[in-house]
Amino acid sequence: MVFSIAHHMLRDATAAEDVAQDVFLQLHQHLAAIESEPHMISWLRRVACQRSIDQCRKRKLRTHPGLEHLPEPAAPRDGRDPMLAALLEKLVGSLPPRARAVVVLRYQEDLDPSEIAAMLEVPVATVKSQLHRSLTILRARLERKTVCKGAPR
Asked: What does the alpha-carbon distance between residue 16 and residue 29 come to, in Å, rounded to a whole number?
């Protein structure tokens, strides 16, 4: 009921939630003065209306600048191509689990081959050869995807 009153008056769900929260906080503070359930319902309606009117007045006092006066939002520029990143993520995900782990640990977590070898309990040479094979596979699959990007499979 409180939210409904505020929402219909303000036509803004977020503002109506704020008003409702304020009304129920006031109810908690004035609970001792409430005599009965009908009195509480009447009190809630009255306070919800008053707070909604106050909110409407505050809105009129605040000036809302037009979009032409607002600065252009800046998009984060990390230099990554989101389409290529998604494709690479899919291709890395298609590698066998051990090879995928080596690639992720090397290029996402930036670990050295010796650290990866210690973590996976394999020789460093194994990590290096696995990286080499995985990168060869990824390059071939990426090349196939970019060359045949429009061809159905």
From this structure: 20
Contact (CB, 8 A) for 57 and 15: no
Is residue 148 predicted with pLDDT exceeding 70?
no
pLDDT confidence of residue 19: 93
Radius of gyration of the chain (CA): 31
How far is the C-alpha of 110 from the C-alpha of 104, rounded, in Å?
8
Q: Is the pTM of this model over 0.85?
A: no
Mention every residue, 6+ apart, whose C-beta is less than 8 A from residue 73: none
From the list 114, 117, 89, 122, the residue with the least C-alpha distance to 104 is 89
Integer Cα distance of 31 and 106 in angstroms:
62
CB 78 within 8 A of CB 36: no
- Please report where in the chains the tokens 């303000």 appear, as a residue: 10
Note whether 102 and 96 are within 8 A (CB). no
Cβ neighbours for 130, distance < 8 A, ≥ 6 positions apart: 98, 99, 102
The residue assigned the tokens 């191509």 is 81
Tokens coding 94: 């298609």
